Amino acid sequence: MKTILVPIDFSDNSFNAALYALDLTNGGKTILHLLNVYHIPNPLKALPLEIIITPDELKANSDSFLNQFASRLKELRPNSSPIICVSQNGFTVQEINHYANFIHADLIVMGMRGSGILRENLLGSTTTGLIANSGTPILVIPENTPYRIPKKILFASDGAAIHSQSHLKILFLFARHFGSTIDILTVLSKENFHKRDSIVDDLERSFINADHCYHFVEMENANASINNFISRNETDLLVMLPRKHNFLERLFQRSHTRSLAFHTHIPLLTLPD
Question: Between 3.40.50.620, 3.40.630.30, 3.40.50.1260, 1.10.10.10, what CATH number should domain 3-141 receive?
Fold first, then answer.
């Protein structure tokens, strides 16, 4: 990887995500970009006179906080990759996507809020918006999760054919770089469970050069099955190809409360369509 983008909101979660990104590169030649997107209130005159702040002051504050943020990272990882700090005014998801495209980012690394329950009000609308719309792989780091070499990777699939190897490029990059094994866990409805052999045939074309094995579970038990698999096998990284959110949404809708949809205490890598 040449370029990693870490969106920063100055929270502990974004600091942990940035630290994770530095550990992932392990002092290599990868450049780490820290991006803070701030928003200028419109209109400024709607604010009380005593708290009015100019656009220049907003940018100066963002620049200052980012430099302090980067200094803290360098203190903890003095031999880490180069860090570039950028402040940008605008709407968060659009600006992150625009900047990721501008720098040709190989990966976006973001922190997850709360307990790691994968739903919009805890994962955050910014992250879910990026997962749905970004053309860049996104690595989501749960709160307080320390870096661990991803030796065991779980690829959760909905059984649909993967039409382009480019979708899996960063997954194979991780697997080669870290010597990882890939478990492919396919979630199927009861009526499609008989298609396991044909699904293996389709997936084998994509995974033929990777160290991998196949597993199948029914959609009705998907949440528990994936979590149990992660726990039993001490999985280090969960990977999904959300297909514009449809796979994730189908998992969500299986929850009776539609709140405890998916829980992960390990990093989640989502791949673009």
Answer: 3.40.50.620
